[in-house]
Design goal:
mainly alpha
Amino acid sequence: MRHGAIPDSRPATLEILSGIPIKQIDEPFEFITPTGAAIVAGVWRIVRTDAGASRWKIGYRIGSRKLPNRPE
């Protein structure tokens, strides 16, 4: 970080996602970064105002962590 280390990004991520329905999952890892949350929030604010919008059902991932409680 330009201004030093940030010890915990969760408060920032939750603030960015405030007002957007999110679900808590029982995993000890970060699943969204503040940058990812900002992208989701921007798209959410556009999509939720479109009466003809449908929910997306596609997911992508980057990385190789295998989680026993999550599908591959």
